[in-house]
Specification:
single chain; about 600 residues; alpha+beta; Beta-Lactamase; Helix Hairpins; 4 domains; 5-stranded antiparallel sheet; rod-shaped
Length: about 600
């Protein structure tokens, strides 16, 4: 605001000084001229008045002594220099000079004017007798007969005349200085009044340029400045609304990008990473702080992806390819690289989209393996049934011993086929979570004892000891029949894979939030490289033994899905020759 006030005040002062100086100069000249003319006319009028005291006093030229005496009388009443000059130019009397003789004045301009017959004469020059610059006025002196007998001259120093001019100049200067200060003060107040709202408008504009969109003009303006302030406020409101909308949209986009399961990465024209979302960080197994600002070559560590990005930069076209990652982990991703052209074609940014399809490809393989294994598992009993049926129809049924043997085998195979089909249907329902669960309070100990009864005969046949170790009284909310199904699969498997004379122990305990059920045996164990695969469909550690025991190879898969339907988890630890331990964790709250 001070800058505007200073500018306005400076401009006004300069203009005032220029115009005031010009006006003062011309008015001073005019007033000086008017004052000089007034004094000259006054001196002329005085000379005319004095002339009445001299005209007709002398009868002839010889009457100059009388004129001199008259001049001495008049001198008492005036401060003007009085000079009497005869027609020959001789000075008869001069009031400013003693009786010392003066030079002849016949050639003086004012004297020449009278001698030439003019009514009066005037002149301005420096006096040789007094050494002062004087203004002279001459009048002709006539005798009683009306004849010019001499010349009356009055003189006034120009210094006295200029003294008035000096007073005029001083007065004008004082007035100008006072007017300058007065108008300067008024101008300062006016400039302040004018500049303050303008400065406030400028401050609001600066705040808007600094993204402070909540600022508003609240000053008291005038006329167009008020309209300007209102316009600035409307602009500020519009910008604030737009920036809020942009911020909301940006936040929505960020939330969307951050919650996408697809990895998103933006590269600038130099190939440096500008934006990266959590899904992309998970794929690269790096933190976003380690990725932002780095080159994609350092981050991707994949020749296939780097080649695809370079191709997109070069061709400025969308690129798509399925790429294998071998580091930091083996992954299969569906990569899409989308070029985004900036203001110029050289400014090309890229959006890199990576969709991790590793699990999809694994599930596809599992599905393919399932179809293959299911076909194989179904083919065995179907082939057996078909073969024995054909054999019987070819005449073997006439032999009652063979007929009975074949029918027993066919019953066994059909039973196995029925179990297999039922397990496949059960597994399918569990995968789609279509199995209803009747929630009730289940005492886990009772479910374990009930399961022991189911496998008791088989365990006694192998002289296997069944133990229940209840460290805490465990109760959960769930489906009692489904819990028995889980326990039956695990305990039955333990009986199958435990050597004669072995031990199977079920331990029950709980923590603050979870119930823990542990099924431990000291059987043959599971090789370490196969532990992660035991929950796969139709997977068998000992394939021949499992099939001979009547298993379908789907039991642990069913167990896994049942546990997940209980919102629980299942884990396994095992060492070959030392046994296997399955640990099931259920939440204690309502499932």
């Amino acid at each position: 605001m001070k800058k505007i006030q200073t500018q306005v005040l400076t401009i006004f002062m300069v203009l005032f000084i220029i115009f005031g100086g010009c006006i003062s100069f011309f008015s001073t000249r005019l007033m000086q001229s008017y004052a000089n003319e007034s004094q000259q006319e006054d001196l002329i009028e005085q000379s005319k008045l004095m002339l009445s005291n001299f005209n007709g006093v002398a009868d002839t030229v010889q009457g100059f002594p009388d004129l001199k005496r008259e001049a001495l009388k008049v001198k008492k009443y005036t401060n003007q220099r009085i000079t009497l000059i005869d027609l020959a130019g001789t000075v008869i009397y001069d009031s400013s000079v003693d009786d010392a003789p003066l030079e002849n004045h016949r050639n003086r301009k004012e004297v020449q004017a009278i001698l030439k017959g003019e009514s009066q004469g005037t002149a301005t020059r420096k006096s040789e007798s007094t050494n002062d610059t004087l203004y002279y006025v001459t009048q002709p002196i006539v005798d009683q007969a009306g004849q010019v007998i001499g010349i009356l001259r009055l003189a006034k120093p120009l210094a006295e005349m200029n003294q008035l001019n000096g007073q005029i100049r001083q007065s004008i200067l004082v007035f100008s200085v006072l007017a300058l200060f007065l108008t300067g003060g008024i101008t300062f107040l006016i400039a302040k009044y004018i500049a303050k709202p303008i400065e406030e408008v400028m401050d609001v504009a600066k705040d808007l340029s600094n993204k402070q969109y909540e600022t508003r003009f609240s000053g008291n303006g005038y006329g167009e400045v008020t309209k300007l302030g209102e316009t600035i406020n409307e602009l500020a409101e519009s910008l604030e609304d737009q920036m809020q909308e942009i911020a909301q949209n940006k936040e929505r986009i960020n939330e969307l990008i951050n919650h996408l399961v697809i990895g998103v990465m933006q590269l600038d024209e130099q190939g440096n990473i500008q934006i990266v979302n959590p899904a992309m960080c998970q794929i690269f197994e790096m933190d976003s702080n380690d990725l932002l600002g780095r080159s994609y070559l350092e981050a991707t560590k994949s020749y296939g992806l780097s080649h695809l990005i370079e191709k997109a930069y070069r061709k400025k076209e969308i690129q798509n390819k399925e790429i294998y990652f071998y580091f930091p982990a083996e992954r299969i991703v569906d990569a899409n690289v989308v070029p985004i052209t900036g203001k110029t074609k050289a400014e090309t940014n890229l959006i890199v989209l990576l969709y991790d399809i590793t699990e999809i490809r694994r599930l596809e393989k599992v599905r393919t393996d399932f179809v293959t294994n299911a076909s194989h598992e179904l083919r065995t009993p179907v082939t057996a049934l078909k073969g024995f049926s054909e054999t019987l129809l070819d005449g073997a049924m006439e032999d009652k011993a063979i007929l009975k043997q074949f029918l027993e085998i066919m019953l066994e195979e059909s039973t196995r086929l029925d179990l297999l089909v039922n397990d496949i249907l059960e597994l399918s329902k569990l995968e789609q979570k279509q199995v209803p669960i009747a929630y009730e309070e289940v005492v886990v100990k009772e479910a374990v004892l009930s399961t022991f009864k189911l496998v008791k005969q088989k365990a006694e046949h192998k002289q296997i000891t069944l133990n229940l170790l209840e460290e805490d009284t465990v109760k959960i909310e769930g489906d009692k029949d489904r819990l028995k199904q889980i326990l039956a699969n695990l305990i039955d498997n333990a009986v199958i894979y435990t050597q004669a004379g072995g031990t199977i122990t079920v331990t029950l305990k709980k923590t603050k939030e979870h119930a823990l059920i542990t099924v431990r045996d000291n059987g043959m164990g599971i090789p370490e490289d196969e532990i992660n695969r035991i929950f796969e469909r139709f997977y068998r550690v000992d394939k021949g033994r499992s099939r001979n025991s009547g298993g379908t190879g789907l039991g642990l898969s069913i167990v896994k899905y049942l546990v997940e339907n209980f919102n629980g988890t299942i884990a396994v630890r095992s060492k070959v020759g030392l046994g296997t331990t399955f640990t099931i964790t259920f939440p204690l709250h309502h499932l």
